[in-house]
Amino acid sequence: MTITITTAPCCWGVDDIANPNLPPWRQVLSEAAAAGYGGLELGPHGYMPLDPEAVAAELSLRGLYVVAGTIFDNLVDPANRDSLERQARRICAVITALPKPPLAAGQRFAAPYLTVMDWGHEARDYAAGHFDRAVRLDDAAWAGMVANIRAVARIARDEWGVRAVIHPHAGGHIEFADEIARIARDVPADEAGLCLDTGHAFYAGMDPVAALDRHWDRLDYIHFKDIDAAKHADVMARRIRFFDACAEGVMCPIGDGCIDYPAIKTLLDRRGYAGFVTVEQERDPLNAGGSLADVGKSRRYLETVGFARPSQETAR
């Protein structure tokens, strides 16, 4: 089975588009290509222009494609439904008009995907990674979040032919093992799949290998991260927001951390995973000067454990 490695703008610190320190989007494209990636994610809504012709031209110059767009927003508040639906339509309009990613034999759904992540809750942000501290949604609030996710997923599917994938995220209301299992039960498989992230799984107290295996039937897309064990132990002993922990370097290049990527590769081979894996490394954008070196290092390490270079891939 073919696995294609891509990357994402968060490796350059692009998470909050209101942050004045974000690097130019063309720089991110150029450095992703220079590091040996054939594709990358669009980044948060509003980072790259919502002009498919302009973005397509820049991608083509660098031989790139976009593997996914992202909704990274409050999925809980019913009053946010209109905004979420507008984002879904705008993002899908862009990503479906860009150069198409390759399709591998055995891949469940064609890319590009729409990754859907809950974010924007201060109490949960400070409780990121702490199962025992995190305030859970009551049944009514959970049902409202499910309704918002399903509405967005149906827009992506029915209006644009795009597969929505729910991404559990540290500091959001879909983070821990019980919440992932519950959202998988409550959102039908024909409406959305899962995009599990090895780093967020570890941060939330899960074994990434076991988490991928447990949710295999819903797993349509994967994110790879790595975690510095010493920094992780330090931030977990303090009251700190998730992205502040990232600014302190809790996420590191893949291969420099504590996540067992040879075991993950063995699992993906045994299960026959085909499709995309996106390398991420959240950081402070003020440190984006090190991004090119880090994403290149992650790519080279993955090659040593059996993930092929783009020139060696056989995607169709």
TrEMBL record:
This protein is called TIM barrel protein
What InterPro entries is this protein classified in? IolE/XylAMocC-like, Xyl_isomerase-like_sf, Xyl_isomerase-like_TIM-brl
Domain (Xylose isomerase-like TIM barrel): give its ranges.
Answer: 30-292
Pfam families documented for this protein: AP_endonuc_2
Species of origin: Paracoccus angustae
Spell out the Gene3D superfamilies in the cross-references: Divalent-metal-dependent TIM barrel enzymes
